[in-house]
Amino acid sequence: MEYLHMQHPIDGIGHNATITGVPVTLTAIDANNKVYDLGSVTTDGYYGTFSMAWTPPVEGTYKIIAPSLATTPTAALQQQPPC
Q1: What does each C-alpha distance from 9 to 6, 15, 20, 55 come to in angstroms?
Q2: Domain ranges of the chain
Q3: Cβ atoms of 21 and 50 closer than 8 Å
């Protein structure tokens, strides 16, 4: 978080810090409230983005939920993309 508060480079002062993403689990919910577990992916360490290819079993609109699997407040905060 030093890059946010102290204006340090996101990859460390020596530009040698390894930045890793956090795991998120993806769940889809259809219009009938049927839940589909899509699996887990890891976010990009720099931007917090992720992607996954998925073909829905039924055509329609789905809500996608992607909570972090981070177990500590610090790990959850580290998934925030830089400002």
Answers
A1: 9, 7, 15, 39
A2: 20-78
A3: yes
Produce one character per residue of 15-47: b if its CB has 16 or more CB atoms within 10 Å, e if not: eeeeeebbebebbbebeeeeeeebeeeebebee
CA distance 19 to 22: 10
CB 41 within 8 A of CB 50: yes
Q: Nearest-CA neighbor of 81 among 48, 44, 45, 51?
A: 48
pLDDT, tens digit, for every residue of 4-16?
555 666 666 666 6
Q: pTM for the complete prediction?
A: 0.62
In the block, which residue shows the tokens 């360490």?
Answer: 45
For residue 19, the one-letter residue type is I
The rounded distance, in Å, linking the Cα atoms of 25 and 15 is: 30
